[in-house]
Every structure is written in structure tokens, then in C-alpha cells.
Amino acid sequence: MNQSTEQALRAGGLDPERVRQVIVDALAEDLGPSSLDVTSVATIPDAQTDTADLVARAPGVVAGLAVAAAVFELVGEVTGMGRTVAVSLVAHDGQRVARGDVLATVTGPTRLLLTAERTALNLLCRMSGVATHTRAWADALAGTKATVLDTRKTTPGLRALEKYAVRAGGGTNKRMGLHDVAMVKDNHKLAAGGVAAAYRRVREVFPDVPVQVEVDTVAEAVEAVEAGADFLLLDNMTPETLREVVARVGDRAELEATGGLTLQVAAEYGATGVDFLSIGALTHSSPILDIALDLREE
Length: 298
Prior knowledge:
Layout: H1 3-11, H2 16-31, H3 38-43, E1 49-56, E2 60-61, H4 65-79, E3 86-89, E4 96-97, E5 102-109, H5 110-140, E6 147-149, H6 159-168, E7 182-184, H7 186-192, H8 195-205, E8 211-215, H9 218-227, E9 231-235, H10 239-249, E10 254-258, H11 266-270, E11 276-278, H12 281-284, E12 291-295
Parallel strand pairs: 6-11, 7-8, 8-9, 9-10, 10-11
Antiparallel strand pairs: 1-5, 1-12, 2-4, 3-5
């Protein structure tokens, strides 16, 4: 992986070594025990080189260009061919692109270009799809104080990449996992004997960890804030109820609306005065952005 690609990944909050492992595993899944693209080996001379463009087939927001670049830069190492592919990025993450826009250009051994093609596109299309969906929510919330949040409903092994794509699309990450934020949900409240009891237990055991509390009613919201909670998840509440919580809680806690939200009602919910809307669909249901690799004709 080139140093410039590593720097781009770090600048986006991604760990280059973790990205490398994702790519190596993905290539291994595609290449099997022989580490060969049998079609390309059989049909393309070893010495042949070409240039290809990564081209948007649909309008959207691009994310993951440095990840795709890393695939092309690592494929020679993974296959044992020991040859390199040069990558030139044309677009940048977070950019709105139109159908037909060239996002990047790759030059190198043709076998390597085609061997890396699907893995690079799988990651780039997936991340760009998440970014495109997120941007739609960010646009829908424009003019309100609310920001769109992601959740832990991510593809196993791809959480860091998908959450990066949310950021590229104009959204915000809530928590990376079970380790960095305590989230007291309904089952925790039931097991602990109530909102206040659950909150106090987390504070006693992990005094420095941020705590978020899920509430279902206005009364629970008030109880949680009076117990010390400063971040509430307002689960499956109507806009009318959300406005009541905002009025009762005021600035004592950050407020997140969650549960059953759609783009069609985003602006209505954002206008209630809550700080965030959390949307699991950003990462569990976003369609890909269609992107292709086109070899240039001589």
C-alpha cells in the first residue's frame, strides 16, 4: 500500500492495517487457494499492461476511493505476482458525482487490474451507497438543528468502513461498539429494575464512559435526566411527544429520535427540536452506488 494511500486512510479516521486486512481477506475469498484469477491468467498475456477508469454509472456521493486504491496497490502482493498498479484519484470522498464521471484511473498489468476489479468495486460501491443514502438524510434535515446518526447495524467486518462512509455523506457516528459508550436500553432497564437504577449502576462501574439512556415515554425521559443522564434515545415517539420531551427536558440532555423513521418524515421529526435522528438503514439497507471499471480502448 502506498504511503499516500495510508495517509489518506488515516486522515479519514481509518486504520491502514485494519483496511489492509479487510482487503487481503476479501481478495483471498475471491481468489481461493490458488490465489489465481483463472480467466485473466488464461486469456491475457503476462506482460500486457493497460489503463482503466473507475466510472460512476449513476449519480450519488462517492466514498472509499482510498480503500479502492489500496486494493489495486495490494493485489500484486496478495497474488504473488510482485508487480504494481498505479492509481490516480480524480474525485474525492464526499463529492457528488454524476453518471459517467471518472472517479479514478488505474494503470498496470492487465491481469492485476481485472483481478482486483471486483474486490475494489465491492468496497467502493458499498461505501458510496452508504454515503449517498446518508447525504439524502442530511439534505432532508437541512434547516433543522438535527443531525443524522448511524447505529451498530453494520456489516460484520466492515463497521469502520461503513461508519466512515456515513461521515463522508454528511452524517455522524454514534458509537463504534459496546466498548466506547454505554447504552441503557429496555432490556438493561428491565434487568436492573428501572431507568434510574440502570443509569446509576453504569456510572458506578464505568464513571468515565459516556452513558446514553433509551426511554419510551415523557415520564421516563424526565426520570432519566433527573438521575443524571445527559443523552436520551427517544424510542418510537410521535412528533408531538418529541416536542413535549424537548419542552420538559430543555438543555439538560441531548436528544435522539429513533425507531421507524423514514426520509418522508425526516424534516417533520427534525423540526421537533431534537438533536439527532438515528437511522439503522444507513448501514443495513443502503443500496450500492453503481460504479464500473472500464478498460480504455487502444
